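RECORD TYPE: inverse folding
INPUT: structure tokens
STRUCTURE:
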């Protein structure tokens, strides 16, 4: 790589970093604005007496429903079903992780993000990127 290419790549990285940081700041501001506006909506609704009365009734009904649900879920048959549901959820999670790894490897080996399915359907491998705050401790 020539010095000009290195400078151009570095400049692109600097530009990209600037753009990413600006978008991150913009998103933060948008979220703050959304929080303020949502709070105003929430306060207006919660301040209404009729809504407040219905909310109390809803909580009482929800409590009764939860008691009935807990009673149903404690039966041996339902405990077995709950265990099976959790087992299937874990199997699906594991399979998705394995598929992700294989898709990444396919993309690396094949040099493409296009994959033809068994029925001839063309699919695209799409990575998901997001920023996570790093713990510097």
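DESIGNED SEQUENCE:
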């Amino acid at each position: 790589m020539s010095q000009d290419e290195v400078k151009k790549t570095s400049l692109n990285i600097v530009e990209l970093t600037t753009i990413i940081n600006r978008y991150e700041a913009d998103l933060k501001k948008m979220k703050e604005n959304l929080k303020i506006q949502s709070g105003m909506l929430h306060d207006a609704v919660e301040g209404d007496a009729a809504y407040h009365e219905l909310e109390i009734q809803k909580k009482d009904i929800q409590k009764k429903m939860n008691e009935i649900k807990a009673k149903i879920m404690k039966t041996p048959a339902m405990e077995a079903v709950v265990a099976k549901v959790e087992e299937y959820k874990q199997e699906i999670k594991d399979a998705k992780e394995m598929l992700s790894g294989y898709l990444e490897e396919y993309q690396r080996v094949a040099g493409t993000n296009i994959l033809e399915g068994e029925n001839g359907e063309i699919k695209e491998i799409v990575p998901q990127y997001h920023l996570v705050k790093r713990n510097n401790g």
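NOTES: The longest strand covers residues 114-116.
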